């Protein structure tokens, strides 16, 4: 089923066991740490740490079909996917170009862990193609970015960055978590590796931690070997939950795209809200680019409360529907203040430089009725200043 032209059909059938195991329509949970050796090579017979049980294989094949790549590998978390990718592709003394505003865990991994092994990092402005070459060194190996940046929902010059990487023989790696393959397939734009925190939209129910890396068969094989050594394999039950979540991905994301658009438009008109960050808004600086490249604008937005950090926290405390929690992409609406949570590891000066203010709220739309979420925000805003 992996070659079907229908995305919705691939979500449900790609990679499925054929023939079905004991006739089961749904992939069973193979809760076994090891499988009988059948005379094949060591890495071909089932062992849970090697991510090659039946649950892992079905899930990897389905994810590759969704991302439009030759292969994929599942990991125990999104950060495990990022870490395994960096460790696989970089040697001591290598250099990385990274988008200037990305998830705090990614910058922390590079700055605090990989820096100990002599890996250097330069931040680049993803909107300034003319400046990227200035940061190249003879040891530059990789360029890393996000399809929709966390938490400001910026859209990099994705086409130019992919072309820049190819011209300079760099591996292009993109974190597609905020868009999901429903809204964007980066491999179709020429990206070598696509990373997803499957904890978010792919799983979609706030009940698992998982990640994946998709790309060429050769590179994924290299990353999988590193993952085997790191021991960050996904549990079969989590594989089952993730496969189940994928089946509803298209309908969930479509609802969240539209809800986020309506909520962003409401907030943009509210007198107690400053800037609203969502690419569906016509005044978003990359609205035209997002309209051209994306099938949908995403279910996450951020906005600045008029007032102080205390006012922003007061708003969060008044929300009745959205939970104050540090994740996104699930069926429940979630909200949090990045300066105090996801980007708390940066200094105030670093946050200011990339546009993360103390009053910025990140809001992940769930599957609730959009009018209810708007009403909840409206009553909370009435008390926040």
Textual characterization of the structure:
This protein has 385 residues and is of the alpha/beta class. It folds into 2 domains: 7-246, Aspartate Aminotransferase, domain 2, CATH 3.40.640; 249-384, Aspartate Aminotransferase, domain 1 (Alpha-Beta Complex). It contains 14 helices and 12 strands. The protein has helices spanning 7-13, 54-67, 78-89, 104-113, 129-132, 158-167, 180-183, 217-230, 236-246, 249-269, 287-293, 309-318, 348-353, 370-384, and strands at residues 71-75, 95-99, 120-124, 140-146, 171-175, 193-196, 211-215, 273-277, 300-305, 323-324, 334-336, 360-364. Strand 2, helix 4 (104-113) and strand 3 form a beta-alpha-beta unit. It is globular. The chain starts with 6 loop residues before the first helix and ends with a helix.
CATH third-level topology of the largest domain: Aspartate Aminotransferase, domain 2
Number of extended strands: 12
Largest sheet entry = 7 strands, mixed
Mean pLDDT: 92
How far is the first residue's CA from the last residue's CA?
54 Å
Which class of the largest domain in CATH terms?
Alpha Beta
The helical percent reads: 25-40%
CATH 4th-level superfamily of the largest domain: Type I PLP-dependent aspartate aminotransferase-like (Major domain)
Structural class: alpha/beta
What shape does the CA trace take? globular
Tell me the count of domains. Answer: 2
């Amino acid at each position: 089923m992996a070659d079907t032209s229908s995305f919705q059909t691939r979500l449900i059938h790609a990679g499925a066991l054929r023939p079905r195991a004991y006739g089961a329509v749904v992939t069973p949970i193979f809760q076994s740490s090891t499988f009988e050796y059948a005379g094949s090579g060591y890495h071909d017979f089932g062992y849970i740490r090697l991510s090659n049980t039946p649950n892992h294989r079905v899930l990897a094949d389905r994810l590759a079909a969704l991302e439009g790549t030759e292969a994929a590998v599942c990991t125990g978390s999104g950060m495990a996917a990022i870490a395994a990718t960096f460790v696989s592709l970089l040697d001591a003394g290598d250099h990385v170009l990274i988008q200037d505003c990305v998830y705090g865990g990614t910058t922390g991994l590079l700055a605090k862990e990989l820096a100990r092994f002599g890996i250097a990092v330069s931040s680049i402005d993803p909107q300034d193609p003319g400046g990227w070459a200035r940061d190249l060194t003879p040891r530059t190996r990789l360029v890393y970015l996000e399809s929709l940046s966390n938490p400001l929902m910026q859209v990099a010059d994705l086409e130019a960055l992919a072309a820049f990487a190819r011209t300079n023989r760099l591996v292009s790696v993109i974190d597609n978590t905020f868009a999901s393959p429903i809204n964007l397939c980066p491999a179709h734009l020429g990206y070598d590796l696509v990373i997803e925190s499957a904890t978010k939209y792919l799983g979609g129910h706030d009940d698992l931690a998982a990640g994946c890396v998709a790309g060429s068969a050769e590179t994924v094989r290299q990353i999988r070997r590193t993952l085997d050594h790191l021991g960050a394999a996904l549990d079969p039950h989590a594989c089952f939950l993730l496969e189940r979540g994928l089946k509803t991905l298209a309908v969930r994301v479509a609802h969240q795209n539209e809800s986020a658009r309506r909520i962003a438009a409401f907030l943009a008109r509210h007198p107690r809200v400053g800037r609203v960050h969502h690419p569906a808004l016509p005044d978003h600086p990359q609205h035209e680019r997002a309209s051209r490249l994306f099938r949908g604008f995403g279910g996450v937005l951020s906005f600045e409360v008029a007032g102080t950090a205390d006012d922003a926290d007061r708003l969060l405390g008044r929300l009745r529907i959205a939970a104050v929690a540090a994740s996104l992409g699930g069926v429940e609406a979630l909200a949090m203040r990045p300066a105090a949570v996801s980007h708390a590891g940066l200094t105030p000066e670093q946050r200011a430089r990339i546009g993360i203010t103390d009053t910025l709220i990140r809001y992940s739309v769930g599957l609730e009725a959009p009018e209810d979420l708007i009403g909840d925000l409206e009553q909370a805003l009435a008390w926040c200043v």
